[in-house]
Amino acid sequence: MATNGLGGYASGAVNGANTRQYHGLLVAALEPPTDRTVVVAKIEERVLIDGHYHNISTNQYPKVVFPDGGKYLKNFDVDPSPTWRFADSDWELGKTVQMISGSNTTVLTYTNSGKRALVLELHPLYAYNDFHTTFHEASCYNFFTEFNNNHLRTYPKYGSNPVFTGWTAGHYFEARCWFKNIILSKGKARGLGSVCDYYRIGYLVHELQPGEELTLYFTIEEEIVGKGIKEILSLEGKKNDLDKDKLPSGFFKDLMISGDQFMVQRKSTNSMSIIAGYHWFTDWGRDTMIAMRGLTIATGKKELSKSILNTFFKSVDQGMIPDRFPDNSKDPVHYNTMDATLWLFVASYDYQKKFEDIAFLKDHIEILKNILDQHIAGARYNIHITQEGFIYGGECKVQLTWMDAIVGGKVITPRIGCPVEVNALWYNALKIYENFCEILEVKIESPYLELIAKFESNFTKFFTNPQGTLFDVIIPGISQDDTLRPNQIYCLSLPFGVLDNEQQKTIFEAVENKLYTPYGLRTLDPDSPEYKPNYEGNQWSRDHAYHQGTVWPFLLHEYFQAYFKIYGTSQDNKKKVMLELEPLREHFYKDNGIHCISEIFNGSDPQEGKGCIHQAWSVAAIIKLYIDFGLDKIEQEISSEKEHPKVKTKNEI
């Protein structure tokens, strides 16, 4: 995957096929980071040498895979950009895909890395559809095109903005046709769009001499054409992150590079935000607050962190930050969340601890105070504070916590009442406000202190179950949900807690025994009758399993944070955690998305990534874990030990 910092991207299967409706060579964010549109779907490529064609692209049709270019693929790498090497006995061709930072522009560079000249044919295939849908032949799509010496200006349909196709060498031949009934196998497996059409305007032909390059680019920005693509690529190369260049090669460095792909500019607020996951998520409040703790704050990116926080401070409405910004910029912002706003306090606390930015704190302390006041007075969706000092929320057919799957108006994991992790966050919001008042030397009003004291005296009394762990949701004096879920881990991992050491250990051991896997924590005890072991099938089936057993990697940070808190941060414990992370490291390099960590895994036998191929808080969790506990140094020690094994003496054998 290549991204552009606007929400746009280029993505497809390694063999060149498109297997999802979300795949495309240029998926442009028309209103960054939203309104994402598949503009250029893919490219059909073939090599002509000694009178024989060698097709190096791949498509799946209803009864055949054609062409099947995978047989010529000899190597693929993503560092520093997705790069392919195709070869046969008498030729070799390299291909690189890049996106220009801050621009809806995709650039492909082909290099004849063999010893003989070859003729390269490139057949771009176009689309023009919202990336949640599939593209099909229709009379409105005529792809009207103005032909120039080194570029095309194409209007997919009347009234659309143009897309530009440019090249540095070769001759372009018009040859219009539809490529029909291409099968999107991953989409089919998910019960989504599984068949699509693409349109060819023509193709580019050029004889590449040994060592020669040909650059082909696609953009929706006319100024790119005028500037010249080689100059733009030269400037792009100077933007390398020198800090990451200094990092030793390894998992940690690759995680850091991978994490940058989630950073996006939000046009509506003129500030930065974080895409929750690729391919289909936008910037969600909850995900952004959690992910930025690892992606930008722990990594020391002060200005970026400040800009992201400002995006959401600007969007506070009735004491709440958005649950998510909509896919379509014209749609209203969503505020159905009970916890995202409380995560704003935690992210702000992390930011203040890292950067000691008193000016920023002064600018926002009143907003934080007003958020608390709004929750105390009563917010949307019956969110209010109970007489016990707990935060309560929920209405029929509304999902307010992170376990938010809903199908046909049915909330799959209803948690109306006082959810345990939301209450842990509420307590942290109060304590963080108290901490900020101390830093600013502002007297905190007594009602907040009274709420803190009330919470501290009541929490264990109301939330502790007979097993010594915590109820998942309670309605004080009315009901208690004793379902074992991972949510109570936050009572151990958040900055401020009320549990004694013995109860923390009891909770950790219960989570470890029933919910822990090397890929993340299960969302439900496998012994529960509601447990769904597999995430598969259509949306109805998938959403019914989404929080009913699926494994979520982002919870690993909370889990290991609790582990280190209880058992200590000795070198042996750090090496134990590194060993535990090995399956996820293997997944990062080899499964589902290359240099990606998936959104979820099956609850039983979790190995293959499911859901989004590249999830922000999944990557952020491991980055934060590495930085918080110096695991990058442990990684280097382990790597050094493998390269230079210690020779044992007789006394050590």
From TrEMBL:
Classification via SUPFAM superfamilies: Six-hairpin glycosidases
BP GO terms, sorted: glycogen catabolic process
Glycogen debranching enzyme C-terminal domain ranges (all copies): 257-623
Occurrences of domain Glycogen debranching enzyme bacterial and archaeal type N-terminal (ranges): 2-215
GO molecular function terms noted in the UniProt entry: 4-alpha-glucanotransferase activity; amylo-alpha-1,6-glucosidase activity
Pfam families assigned to the protein according to its UniProt record, in alphabetical order: GDE_C, GDE_N
Protein name (database record): Glycogen debranching enzyme, putative
Organism: Arenibacter palladensis
